[in-house]
Each structure stands twice: as structure tokens, then as C-alpha cells.
Specification:
mainly alpha, 7 helices, about 130 residues, globular
């Protein structure tokens, strides 16, 4: 069952999210990050604000890099941390890691943290797509 749910999740990203603008893709990542907001400390909350600013394109890549590095230094040695989705959400859009892929990984991190499931994130993604 989970394999089918995972397949549906990835299909919506590859078919529907991939062609969107970077800002729209980042909006999806931001909405996923909101699911872990209550787990964040001050550093995480600051990073979440940067992720929100990315949805409007109102932030420099230097600021994102600085926050991403701070978050990475505070990651535990094992397991997924509430910082993990934020790190992916702040990852620059590149050919290797396009924003749509990073947004999908944000969702996987949220699932690993037990804050959502594949079907819930697939439904949330569809809701966000309908709002564009």
C-alpha cells in the first residue's frame, strides 16, 4: 500500500509540480514546512521565515546559504531532524536539485518526522495546485 501511495506522490510531483515556476514549487515546500512548525526552535523558525520569503523571491541566496549551513551544523548524527525539511526548502534551484525535487524531499522529511503521510501530502499538493 505504501509503495502505491509513494508512487502517486512522486507522480504528482513529476507531472504537475515539475512544470510550475520556481516560486510555485517553493510555495509547496513552504506549506509542507508549516506542518513541522510546532517542532521548531528559534533557529528553525527563522529558517521558516526565509522559506516563506523564497516563495515571493524576496531573499538573497547568501542568506539562504548561511541559514542552511547553521541548520546543517545542528543536525543530529542519525535520523531526520525538524531542520531537515528546512534545509531542503532552502536548497538553491540547480540542475542537480531543481526546486520541484527539493519540495518533494521536504515532504519525505515531513513524513519521516511523523507529521504527515503520502496520501495527506498528495492531497495537500493537489489543494495547493488548485490555488494557483
Amino acid at each position: 500500500m505504501e509503495q502505491q501511495e509513494s508512487k502517486q506522490y512522486w507522480e504528482i510531483f513529476e507531472i504537475k509540480v515539475r512544470p510550475l515556476t520556481e516560486r510555485q514549487q517553493r510555495t509547496i515546500a513552504y506549506n509542507f514546512c508549516l506542518l513541522i512548525e510546532k517542532d521548531l526552535d528559534d533557529l528553525g523558525k527563522g529558517a521558516l521565515k526565509l522559506v516563506q520569503q523564497l516563495t515571493a523571491g524576496d531573499i538573497s541566496s547568501e542568506e539562504c546559504t548561511a541559514y542552511r549551513e547553521q541548520l546543517q551544523h545542528r543536525l543530529p548524527d542519525e535520523g531526520t531532524s525538524p531542520y531537515s525539511p528546512l534545509i531542503w526548502a532552502l536548497t538553491p534551484h540547480t540542475a542537480s536539485y531543481p526546486a520541484w525535487y527539493s519540495a518533494a524531499i521536504v515532504g519525505l522529511n515531513v513524513i519521516d518526522l511523523g507529521r504527515s503521510t503520502f496520501p495527506e501530502l498528495t492531497d495537500l499538493t493537489k489543494e495547493i495546485l488548485n490555488s494557483f
